[in-house]
Description:
Elements: E1 2-6, E2 12-16, H1 39-51, E3 56-59, H2 62-73, E4 85-89, E5 93-103, H3 108-127, E6 130-142
Amino acid sequence: MTEMTTTPEGDSEPQVSTRKAIRRGGGDPATRGRTTIADGVVEKIAGLAAREVLGVHAMGSGLARTFGAVRDRVPGGTKSVTRGVKAEVGEVQTALDLEIVVDYGVSIIDVSRAVRENVIASVERMTGLEVVEVNIAVSDVKLPEEEEEEPAPPRIQ
């Protein structure tokens, strides 16, 4: 921005504005504002991560799985990836409780360890939250001869 000023001798000299660029907001842009993550988001991530582990047959207690199978049969119903998962989410930390059903013949200790590791890695990577604990309750063992709890095909096509 250039303006003309007159000196006491009557000469005109251009005057250059020395206005400095003002940086607004200050600080790292990533620190401006707050991000909150809902419990349900962490539950979905943990549920999917737990199901990825070999030896996990299903999630949730028998009653929850029964209700889930009925809900899955309803047209427009979706599979609940949060079944068997409960999360408590704070500002920087989260704690998880999982209820799983394992396949017969697998080491429950090894499956639990693998579930815990996969859940912690997935939740921490995707949310940035510190996972302080993952409690796992094994509520059932899926025997090879047991029927699947899959919904029956609809009788009307």
